[in-house]
Automatic annotation (TrEMBL):
This is Short-chain dehydrogenase. It comes from the Bacteria. SUPFAM superfamilies: NAD(P)-binding Rossmann-fold domains (SSF51735). It holds the Pfam family adh_short. Belongs to the short-chain dehydrogenases/reductases (SDR) family. Coiled coil: none annotated.
């Protein structure tokens, strides 16, 4: 069964934070596969710039202004999508921030932790809660959460030699992994699949800021943006027999 079309119509995919970085590449790859991609961006001008560039290549994209930290913004976005398309098939929760690069857990400010959780965890939760009802109506959905191996317990316990820096960012991704599991269980009988992905240390602004030792020593990010987006795109276009409730890297299961 072709998961990219339904009754002859392309699937509708929404990617948050799609105006730059890995989100932009995920949107590009999905649109290149023939999907109708909604470019989620809280900055209208930047989002429209991405839309204009993609359309020059003949890709089917539209702008959806949405701020994952604003419940009303999400509500308006979902209402607009429902009115225009009557459905949403794919959600890629890409929007995320890192504010405490290199800061010890003993020194990180509480406000930094709260701001990080607000976007990286609660923003994703808001998007899922708002869009699952629309997916449920059509008995189809693919939700992909952009996580990080830095939030995996094998890393947090020190097995890879990393200490307590960037704790707000890393803890937010641990929470996101837990959320992925819980939501996957809730929607398993609704035709919806929910998975998390670690893209690796990608050659983006955020990728350069997530591993302090490598950054400080001038070690370049090893993963291209296209490579980093690949697994997320794969999970976003899974067939019916694809996995649910997993954590993946390079299309292979990763340790939580």
């Amino acid at each position: 069964m072709n998961s990219l079309v339904d009754q002859g119509n392309p699937r509708i995919a929404l990617v948050t934070g799609a105006n730059r970085g890995i989100g932009r590449e995920i949107a590009y790859q999905l649109a290149s596969k023939g999907l109708k991609v909604l470019i989620g961006s809280r900055d209208e001008d930047k989002g429209q710039h991405t839309v204009d560039e993609f359309r020059q290549e003949g890709l089917a994209v539209e702008l959806q202004v949405v701020d994952v930290n604003d419940t009303e913004s999400i509500k308006k976005m979902v209402e607009a999508v429902k009115q225009q398309y009557g459905r949403l098939d794919i959600l890629v929760n890409n929007a995320g921030i890192i504010l405490d690069h290199g800061v010890s857990v003993l020194n990180v400010e509480e406000t930094v932790i709260k701001d990080t959780f607000e976007t990286n965890y609660f923003g994703v939760l808001r998007m899922i809660q708002a869009t699952v009802p629309l997916m449920k109506e059509n008995r189809y959905g693919r939700i992909v959460n952009l996580s990080s191996g830095l939030g995996a317990f094998e890393v947090l316990t020190g097995l890879l030699g990393l200490k307590g820096s960037s704790s707000a960012y890393r803890t937010s991704k641990t929470m996101l992994n837990a959320l992925t599991c819980l939501v996957a269980q809730e929607v398993a009988d609704m035709g919806i699949k929910v998975n998390a992905v670690c893209p690796g240390r990608v050659q983006t602004d955020m990728g350069r800021a997530t591993t302090s030792r490598q950054v400080d020593e001038g070690i370049p990010a090893p993963v291209t943006v296209a490579e980093g987006a690949d697994t997320a795109v794969w999970l976003a276009t899974l067939d019916e027999d694809g996995p649910n409730g997993g954590f993946f890297r390079e299309r292979k299961p990763a340790n939580w």
